[in-house]
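Structure, all two chains, one model.
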Amino acid sequence: MKPDNRESGRMSADIENPALSELENEKREKRKIGFGFWVAIGWMVLVVMAAFLAPILPIPDPDQTGAGGRLDAPNWDNWFGTDTNGRDMFSRTIWGSRVSLTVGFFAIVFGFAVGGPVGIVAGFFKGATDKFLSIIIFILFAFPGLVLALLIISLLGQTLAVVCFTVGIIGVAPVARLARAITISNAEREFVAAARILGSTNRRIMIREILPNVTIPMGALAFLGMALAIVGEGGLAFLGLSVEEGFSWGKMIVLGSASRTLQKAPWVSMFPIGVMFLTVMSLNYAGDRLRDFFDVREMGIGGG
Amino acid sequence: MSAPLVSIEDLHVSFLTEQGSVRAVDGVSFDLEPGKSIGIVGESGSGKSVTAKTLMNLLPSYAQVKGSMKFDGRDLREIARKKEKHFWGVEMTMIFQDPMTSLNPVKRIGEQVAESLRVHMNRSRSEAMTEAGDLLEQVGIPEPGKRLRQYPHELSGGLRQRVVIAIALACGPRLLIADEPTTALDVTVQKHILDLLDDLRKERGMSMILITHDLGVVKGRTDEIMVMYGGRTMEEAPTSALFASDGLHPYTEALNATIPRIDTPSHTRLVPIPGKPPEVIGRIEGCPFAPRCRYSTSECLTEMPSLVEQEEGHFCACHNPVGTPEGVNAREANQNAGYTPAGLDMKEFEAFAVHTETGEI
């Protein structure tokens, strides 16, 4: 950079074109998302890859008893040790991630697919529509999540789909409320009026003008929500309400948390806990960083 | 005199609220000829923006509109009823006060400029983009090609307002409504934008309605000026006639006195108009400005003066216009009493009097 040349260049250009003097805050410092974000993403990629590739990874069958002794401590053959039935904990942690991640992902997809549109419609139309939808949102909020989960799972059975649906439905209310708040703040903006002048219908305005503005802050929430959903599945497992077939991190933790096992072989619960902890923390951290990074308002839309 | 492009007659707009009916616009009429411009001036709540939104068909559904609005001889409400697709945004467009909020923050500039071209003019994506680049160049944006790919937050306020203007001009409108187009901008940028609007208007033979609270903005810029207060027209005149005096209406005079002047010594206090803009719920008896007016008489509190042609083309709605014998008498009577008939202390006008009576400050 040659500051001297640029200065004089700009000054002479000013005379020819007044708009150039309006350029001054155009060049902003590029924001950095930070190293930590990439570490978190790296961990998530590792976990997701492992979950996907579990069948072809050179690891023992997770259900095979006698892959080592009973409650073996971590060693070269069984990196994470073995559980009460002598099954390899490393392999089980990888296989268990499949259920946990599926619940985390699909619960959030469900929560957003339902809560997002409800919130946008409520915030956009306001009035009676808003009142009606808001009451439903409030009822969902007021309903104790655990009781709701018990109710749904005991009615519909302990399948993977039902667990996803249950955790997802608990997420609908907060998602809807956030979407509604963001929509309200955007619907008042003049670009919506401008779109209306262009002859856009309400539906078009909601999809083309409002939705992109809602998506960015909500995208960050998706990461945080996924973290909560994974923990939520663990909670359900503790109550014996998670999937009946197969196992998840939650179910493994429960298995390892019997007091005798915990005393004799803490690794049986500690490894799934550790992996879950790291995953949830990564999701939270990445979500936070994304929210900061993409917060358009901070970049001068509101303040100017 | 050619046929007016816009013709508004006895426009009433009211909003039904829980507290009652709010009369935002109360019997406003004006004509605007093709290629001419009119400035609508008034404080917040004077009904100027509502007038603009009524023209643009942007009022919420609970608004009640009475009166006639014609554009090029066609009834605007009829056009709205038929849901004509290529009218608003093509024949008539509007730019808003705040360029920070009138652009969608998550869409690229190019996309936003091209959108109306694609919707109304049936341009293909690439044609619209090329035209968008040309438009940006016309409104004086440097490096238009680069701007097309940028997002609104990457531009400064002045550039953003230029983009908004480019969007408004995309379909070659015959009428441009500018609602406080420079209020949110830096003073140094204000003049650039106003000059740009002026140039573009002349170049394209467009009509323009410029809405502002600042008489200084329209001074020497628009062909006509209409001063509004409490939803009513207070004074309407060709700009030169209005500024020949400081305005016939006490409200215009007051607005004039509030303009900061360059020749005043620094640290001179700005002068506010005493009192507050009126609540316009329910029916107002008398002149809405009477409670804040030092020329008011008891008649002003009970009877709304009608808009009378005081000089040629110069209309004013006042019982005691400034500079007339009635006006002088009314002010002196109030001065002697110490209070206006509405109960406002005449002392509040002292700062004001210095401004308006000595001529120099």
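Residues 182 and 269 of chain B are 23 Å apart (CA to CA).
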